[in-house]
Design a protein that fits this description.
The complex is a heterodimer. Chain A is mostly helical. Helices cover 71% and strands 0% of the residues of chain A. Chain A is built from three helices and no strands. Chain A has helices at 13-27, 33-38, 50-101. The radius of gyration of chain A is 24 Å and the shape is elongated. The model of chain A has no long low-confidence stretch (mean pLDDT 86). By secondary structure, chain B is mainly alpha-helical. Chain B is built from 22 helices and no strands. The longest helix of chain B is centred in the middle third of the chain and has 51 residues, at 159-209. The mean pLDDT of chain B is 88. The chains are: A mainly alpha, B mainly alpha. Chains A and B meet through α3 of A and α5, α9, α10, α13 and α22 of B.
Chain lengths: 103, 494
């Protein structure tokens, strides 16, 4: 028996949203959806056949999700760093003032 | 000056640059095994990015993918899906592998698995799977290199001599500078191959069809079968599409030369941004190869060896200097994979076999010397395999792409804490079942029911791993708390 909650399902709402978005977009690049929706040359998009353009758009969207995830995680890290630093400062200043007021 | 002199000269110029980089890396190296094998775990974003993409994309991406588009049409654009998946795997699993490597000093895939599953049998199995299924890639890349040099020189340099020259150069800079030399040369190789493949494809497309849109229109008019699934020869069935996506993403990422790269990142931030952005390079490299492959299908139909479509098109339609630059790029693509495989096999054999079972307490300098000797032995094996042409090799190469994929359940068990644990008996039984199934579904009865053999192997592996893990003893509480605790803190404690 393991000691930790499963890591196979994301725990945060942002993590769940991004994982779901990635999986849905990815499903559109895979059978059967790619065969049902993408398997045709027309309509042409930007001079490219539909199948090529359809997959290209999905691939860029998937990369966008990964970059979005990296950015949200980085800003969460920065916020928690800021909070940690500010709580350390608060603790230090309260320690100092306690020392100052000691007889 | 004759075209072959320019093309061959540019390749040799490129080889000289790599040797110089190896020598400079040697001067920067300290007598430290971690520095020699893992770049001191301080690879920054740019260096790590270019070495990962250059290692992932081999001679196959440069030459073979054009051949695939040439033969099977647009179906090979599934390649974009597996390259995007490589990014996601790096982000989610690679970052955990990095964190565990940093916390517990792991250097090889076997270190990671043997520590959690508390088993020497797991260490040996992982080392054997790692080496056997990647050593064959040395042969594939070396042979590709021989063909490139033979093509560039107009067959004045034989395939065998070309293979030997390029193997010796790769081994030389690896011996001199260790992983630092590999990384530095990969930076050049990664940049060079990307520019070369785009330049070559655009020059050929504009010259022959006016523009990429003109090429697409001509393909639609003359070979519409190349623009639909499953392609002219019915290759890209749903099962094959999905199977290739899984095998060529997870299967490549779990090979030792890719996993070892995760250990070398300077920080978690580096590896996460690596995961988020590598698909930009990996996926877009296939755009020019679509143009070459489909353009080639119209301009040079009926080619006996479709993998040679890019060099053949260049020889026929591009200026000699561009052909030289591009063939040097193809050399870079193959060498960057070759040197990484040589390095990873050296690392596995030095760390998991020599240091663990032959000489435990030798000096760092001693292990570095042994590592260098192992590279020489691997060089000899690689050369022998590439000129032997033995029939059994064809079978082994067929298996090799899906071999490392069989480590997947074991790696997930370490990197993803869960209520239900995988056990050493479970993963050993799973790997055995996976490899047997792989042999049956790739060699004996290839791709049953239209699904890639690698998927059958992986499915059998997962079923047996889960079933056998339920019935056997899990790793000790102390180990689970230590290893899974480190993952829990890395992912959720901020």
């Amino acid at each position: 028996m393991g000691h930790f909650r499963s890591h196979f399902l994301p725990r945060t709402p942002t993590g769940r949203r991004l994982a779901a978005l990635f999986l849905v977009l990815f499903a559109f690049t895979q059978p059967p959806l790619v065969f049902w929706i993408g398997n045709r040359a027309e309509p042409w998009i930007g001079g490219m056949p539909f199948l090529f353009a359809y997959l290209l758009a999905l691939y860029f969207a998937l990369i966008g999700v990964l970059i979005w995830r990296a950015q949200t995680e980085e800003s969460a890290d920065r916020t928690s760093d800021r909070l940690r630093r500010s709580s350390q400062r608060t603790r230090r200043s309260s320690d100092r003032s306690r020392k100052d007021t000691e007889p | 000056m004759e075209p072959w002199v320019i093309a061959t000269g540019l390749i040799f110029l490129y080889l000289i640059v790599t040797i110089i980089l190896g020598a400079v890396a040697n001067r920067r190296m300290s007598v430290d095994l971690e520095d020699f094998l893992l770049y001191g775990r301080k690879a920054g974003f740019v260096v790590l990015y270019l070495t990962v993409v250059a290692t992932y994309h081999s001679a196959f991406a440069f030459l073979g993918s054009s051949g695939f588009f040439y033969t099977h049409g647009i179906g090979f654009w599934a390649a974009g899906a597996w390259t995007v998946l490589v990014g996601a795997i790096t982000y989610v699993i690679g970052s955990r592998i990095w964190a565990l490597g940093k916390a517990f000093g792991y250097m090889t895939p076997a270190d990671l698995l043997a520590d959690f599953y508390e088993s020497d049998a797991v260490r040996i199995t992982t080392a054997v799977v790692s080496v056997v299924f990647t050593i064959l890639y040395i042969q594939v890349q070396a042979k590709g290199l021989g063909y490139i040099l033979a093509t560039a020189s107009g067959d004045r340099i034989s395939v065998e001599s070309g293979t030997l020259i390029l193997l010796v150069v790769a081994a030389a800079y690896l011996i001199m500078g260790g992983l630092r030399a590999v990384y530095w040369t990969d930076v050049i190789q990664g940049a060079w191959m990307y520019v070369a493949v785009w330049a070559g494809a655009l020059v050929l497309t504009v010259k022959l069809y006016g523009s990429p849109a003109g090429l697409w229109r001509r393909v639609a008019a003359e070979r519409p079968d190349l623009l639909s699934l499953p392609g002219p020869e019915g290759f890209f069935t749903p099962g094959m599409w999905f199977g290739m996506v899984i095998v060529l993403s997870f299967g490549i990422v779990f090979q030792p030369h890719m996993m070892i790269r995760y250990y070398t990142a300077a920080s978690a931030r580096t590896i996460k941004w690596l995961g988020a952005t590598t698909p930009l390079y990996l996926m877009t490299l296939f755009i020019p190869t679509v143009l070459v492959g489909l353009g080639g299908a119209l301009a040079m139909p009926g080619l006996e060896n479709p993998d040679r479509i890019f060099p053949e098109m260049l020889s026929a339609h591009a200026p000699a200097i561009l052909t030289g630059v591009i063939l040097a790029g193809a050399t870079a693509a193959a060498m960057s994979t070759l040197d990484s495989i040589l390095h990873s096999n050296m690392t596995v054999l030095t760390r998991d076999v020599y240091q663990r079972y032959i000489s435990r307490d030798a000096s760092q300098g001693h292990y570095i010397l042994v590592g260098r000797l192992i590279v020489v032995v691997l060089l000899a094996i690689g050369y022998y395999l590439s000129v032997a042409n033995a029939e059994y090799l064809v079978v082994l190469v067929t298996l090799s792409g899906s071999g490392a994929l069989q480590l997947m359940p074991a790696i997930l068990g370490v990197c993803f804490p869960s209520r239900r644990l995988t056990t050493r008996t479970g993963i050993l039984a799973g790997i055995a079942a996976g490899l047997v199934t792989l042999y049956i579904t790739l060699v004996a009865f290839p791709h049953p029911l239209g699904a890639h053999g690698g998927i059958w192997g992986l499915a059998a592996n997962f079923v047996v791993t889960v079933f056998a893990s339920r019935m056997s003893r899990p790793p000790s509480d102390e180990t689970v708390l230590r290893v899974h605790g480190a993952v829990e803190r890395f992912v959720y404690d901020r």
